[in-house]
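Duplicate of #3305? Posting structure anyway:
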């Protein structure tokens, strides 16, 4: 199998080259390096019809057999992890070792979800009747995925949806469709036809899917603005929706934090994947007692970063994934310059080809400026000095976002007390981005609704069905 050419969609177990194609850009060069299929509405109809047929069969496949299929998916992905990771680097931009970890993480997620079961709750059991609630699948689940973690995000959704008896229509971002298409191709002989259809296309494809009456549930990960459009569109046929959206996560460093111990972790909480993570630290509140020490340590970390193509083994940070996002971050840098905000390091885009922006750290900007209030989704971090923890918690919770956050301290009790007051879906203490198939995560307020992962995430791919058995009198 070729991993650098011949990209096709997977519809009903078959390769579909697409009515037309879209160029895919390597963000390290800014040049088109491959063509991906651009689905027509007719091709989407084929995929939907295939999914609806497959659902009738797949939902009846014994649970243990569906678990086994997830293990086979994991094995197939693992066998081809190197080739998939190289392709992911070319389209997404991240360093190879991160891409490889992303691919292997997807396989691990399948293996772990395969160990889960769906509960049956007995509600009443007496001389007259027995009532129980069990979980039943919904139908065709549309999995809509962004460009920052194309494979991780897809595999937050696929194993849970398939295990619970749904079929999946997977749509990658038009910016990063290729690795996803190849995974679809790899799984054609692992899953029955129609159980996993993979369709790629332009900006028109997402709305076609969310409007389609045959879709039972939408699991969407992307920006808050798009999430709102998805909900509007889903309302026509009351599709179920899970939304994982944007964030403006805060890290709060308490005065007793051990700066030399935590500085590097805090640094990478903001700059992993060039800051293109929904759950990246996007505001760093640091107590005045340790502010200067942490600022110096973060600048030292920044100086060690090797910014470059993800294909270069020396690179530790890649480019911004696409031109539109690059321009958004450049506009933010222009705003920082225009306001004369103090830059500790960085502040200007690179003048090499590709969408490169160096690590940029801003020294104590005003609270109401865009570098603090907006989701940069790039390697730009505001450090904010505080002395009053209550005021900080109010500022953190005043954001329309409530995705995640972190607290850093040598005192676990003090840290937990702060964590419990942060109004977000996840708070990490002295760590960051601990995600696991066992742990549900999701956003509060405009960071989303519903959760992915864990038993709660699995249940979101099901409907509750209560059965009441009358007993013979
Ligand atoms: P986006 O909202 O532009 O696109 C996400 C996906 O939705 C893409 O596949 C896109 O093609 C599709 N889409 C676009 N318009 C659509 C429409 N009207 N109807 C249906 N689908 C549509 O987001 P992006 O720029 O790809 O990703 C960056 C954003 O995603 C950031 O805000 C980031 O915080 C967020 N994100 C959130 C999480 C999370 O788990 N909460 C994870 C990763 C990224």
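Output from current build:
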């Amino acid at each position: 199998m070729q991993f650098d050419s011949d990209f096709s969609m997977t519809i009903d177990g078959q390769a579909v080259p697409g009515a037309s194609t879209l160029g895919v850009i390597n963000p390290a060069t800014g040049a088109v390096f491959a063509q991906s299929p651009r689905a027509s509405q007719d091709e989407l109809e084929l995929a939907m019809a295939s999914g609806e047929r497959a659902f009738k069969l797949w939902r009846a496949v014994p649970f243990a057999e569906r678990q086994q299929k997830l293990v086979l998916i994991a094995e197939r992905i693992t066998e081809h992890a190197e080739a998939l990771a190289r392709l992911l680097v070319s389209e997404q931009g991240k360093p190879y070792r991160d891409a490889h970890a992303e691919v292997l993480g997807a396989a691990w997620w399948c293996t772990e979800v395969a160990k889960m079961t769906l509960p049956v709750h007995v509600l009443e059991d007496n001389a007259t009747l027995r009532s129980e609630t069990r979980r039943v699948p919904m139908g065709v689940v549309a999995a809509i995925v962004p460009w920052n973690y194309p494979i991780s995000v897809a595999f937050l959704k696929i194993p849970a949806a398939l295990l619970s008896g749904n079929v999946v229509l997977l749509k990658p971002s038009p910016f990063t469709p290729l690795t996803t298409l190849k995974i679809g191709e790899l799984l054609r002989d692992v899953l029955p036809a129609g159980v996993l259809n993979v369709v790629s296309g332009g900006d028109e494809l997402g709305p076609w899917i969310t409007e389609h009456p045959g879709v039972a549930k939408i699991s969407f990960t992307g920006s808050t603005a798009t999430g709102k459009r998805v909900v509007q569109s889903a309302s026509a046929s009351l599709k179920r929706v899970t939304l994982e959206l944007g964030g403006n996560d805060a890290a709060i460093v308490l005065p007793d934090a051990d700066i030399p111990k935590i500085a590097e972790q805090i640094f990478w909480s903001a700059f992993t994947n060039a800051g293109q993570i929904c759950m990246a630290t996007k505001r760093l509140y640091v107590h005045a007692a340790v502010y200067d020490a942490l600022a110096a340590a973060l600048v030292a970390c920044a100086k060690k970063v090797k910014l470059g193509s993800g294909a270069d083994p020396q690179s530790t940070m890649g480019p911004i994934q696409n031109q539109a996002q690059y321009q958004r971050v450049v506009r933010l840098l222009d705003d920082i310059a225009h306001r004369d905000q103090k830059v500790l390091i960085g502040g200007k885009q690179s003048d090499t080809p590709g969408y490169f922006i160096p690590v940029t750290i801003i020294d104590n900007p005003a609270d109401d400026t865009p570098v603090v209030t907006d989701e940069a989704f790039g390697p730009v971090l505001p450090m904010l000095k505080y002395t009053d923890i209550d005021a900080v918690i109010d500022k953190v919770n005043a954001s329309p976002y409530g995705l995640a956050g972190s607290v850093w301290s040598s005192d676990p009790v003090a840290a937990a007390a702060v964590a419990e007051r942060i109004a977000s879906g996840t708070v990490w203490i002295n760590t960051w981005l601990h995600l696991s198939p066992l742990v549900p995560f999701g956003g509060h307020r405009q960071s989303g609704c519903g959760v992915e992962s864990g038993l709660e995430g699995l249940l979101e791919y099901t409907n509750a069905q209560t059965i009441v058995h009358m007993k013979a009198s």
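Confirmed duplicate; merging threads. The chain has a mean pLDDT of 98. The two ends are 64 Å apart (CA to CA).
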